[in-house]
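Database export, one record per block. Field names are fixed; values are copied verbatim from the stored entry.
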Amino acid sequence: MSEKYNGWSNYETWCINLWMDNEEGTYEHFQQLAINADDVYELSQQIKEYHEDAASTVLGDHAGVMADLLRGALSEVNWQEIAKHWIEAEATA
């Protein structure tokens, strides 16, 4: 069971959002997605797909403990919480 972390639903969600906001190009990419999103669900799916594709690129066909841990961590991310945060940030900008 995950515990809240720095105001987010869990560490994994906080960590993903931290890195989305950490580099200018990445920030601008997700900012544009948030501006153009029709709703929280749509944006959450775009964010999830982006990170799952990145994980697949890194992992390739590798199997093992590290691949399992990365996939497990991604399964804990609250994608809708992140999407809601980004949409709300753009609404108040």
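Remark 1: Residues 11-91 form one domain.
Remark 2: Residues 40-59 form the longest helix (20 residues).
End of record.
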